[in-house]
Design brief:
Number of strands: 8
Strand order of the largest sheet: 1-2-3-5-4-6-7-8
Number of domains: 1
Shape: globular
Number of helices: 14
CATH superfamily: Alpha/Beta hydrolase fold, catalytic domain
Largest sheet: 8 strands, mixed
CATH topology: Rossmann fold
Helix content: 40-55%
Radius of gyration: 21 Å
Order of helices and strands: EHHHEEEHEHEHEHHHHHHHHE
Distance between the termini: 43 Å
């Protein structure tokens, strides 16, 4: 593994100029009266955001803020069968003695930026909560990490990158947090590298949770059969059903024909904006997105090292991997923590 190199985001001026030229030539579809969000992202939202992207959004200022707030680095990580990949990551150490090394793993359509607002809280000294040394990488193909150029880079390989990064940073023992794909990746880490290295893991997306079984957990099974769901659990099941019915179209395309979709995401900044903005709104609990916050999020994808098409290939690779089912049903060897937020995409009953 190579040595660590400091990293600052700097997008070439030529790319900023090219973006402005494409935004100036954007054409928009019409919209049915009263359709609102039922048919997808409303026209008014997209035109407002595109106008801001052209006329008011200052990428250079946001770039400087990201560089100031987030200590960033890169290093090469050797992946079995794939060679070395140059990986971008945020790494902030706590000043608290005995702080816990924490690997923060994002999903799609996320990036290292997901750690931005919680990072200052995680490293703080507190009598009530532990402090952490935080590592938040850009997964290969996301943000400013290099992407693989060979097929077959699936959950095992993402987990290998994460684990080897922590070892390279001197963290022989660590805990993890994963959301979306990060949940699957940290599950694999718990299975492959726990309990010797990965000591515990937390997820806000327990998407692979299954009902209790009679033979493995008879008490929970009987409780599940006879104790009614709470109002919150019923609401969670309704949310899950909505997502299965109305929100999974993107998943089918990205897990079967990601290259076809990649042309639009790469060539059209407006198409990329609409594709991701839909998820930012639908997948959060009335979070008060500012336009500049959205545009920063989208710009990281648009200006990403490998281009936005690379980020969606994880769907195809994981779905078509040989051991994906085994990963889901295999039990973790280490303690697991779960957060259940009201607007997660799959919310299962506590049992």
């Amino acid at each position: 593994m190579s040595t660590e190199q400091p990293f600052e985001i700097f997008i070439p001026e030529s790319k900023l100029v090219a973006l402005q030229q494409k935004l100036a030539l954007a054409e928009f579809p019409d919209e049915l009266e009263g359709s609102k969000w039922d048919y997808g992202v409303p026209l008014g939202d997209v035109t407002r955001l595109v106008t801001r992207w052209k006329e008011g959004f200052d990428w250079r200022a946001e770039e400087a803020r990201l560089n100031e707030e987030l200590p960033q680095f890169t290093r090469d990580i050797d992946v079995d069968g794939f060679g070395a990949l140059n990986i971008h990551y945020v790494h902030r150490k706590s000043e608290v003695k005995g702080a816990i090394p924490l690997l923060f793993v994002h999903g799609w359509p996320g990036s290292f930026i997901e750690v931005r607002k919680v990072l200052p809280l995680l490293v703080l000294s507190s009598q009530d909560f532990p402090a952490f040394h935080v590592v938040a990488l850009s997964l290969p193909g996301f943000g400013f990490s290099e992407t693989t150029h060979k097929t077959g880079f699936a959950a095992d390989q993402y987990a290998e990158v994460c684990h080897k990064l922590m070892l390279a940073l001197g963290y022989n023992e660590y805990v993890t947090q994963g959301g979306d794909w990060g949940s699957l990746i940290t599950r694999v880490i718990s299975q492959k590298y726990g309990p010797n290295h990965s000591k515990a893991w937390h997820t806000n997306f327990p998407a692979d949770a299954l009902p209790p079984r009679l033979l493995s957990n008879p008490i929970a099974y009987i409780q599940h059969m006879f104790i009614p769901y709470t109002a919150a659990e019923k609401a969670g099941l309704e949310r899950s059903a909505w997502f299965q019915r109305e929100g999974r179209g993107y998943y089918s395309e990205q897990s079967t024909q990601p290259q076809t979709l990649g042309y639009s995401l790469t060539d059209s900044p407006v198409g990329l904006l609409a594709w991701i903005y839909e998820k930012l709104v639908n997948w959060t609990d009335s979070y008060p997105w500012t336009d500049d916050e959205v545009l920063t999020w989208i710009s990281i994808f648009y200006f990403s090292r490998a281009g936005p098409a690379a980020s969606v290939r994880i769907y195809y690779e994981v779905v078509h991997s040989d051991n994906v089912r085994q990963v889901v049903i295999q039990k973790s060897k280490i303690p697991m923590g779960v957060s259940l937020f009201p607007k997660e995409l799959r919310i299962v009953p506590r049992r």
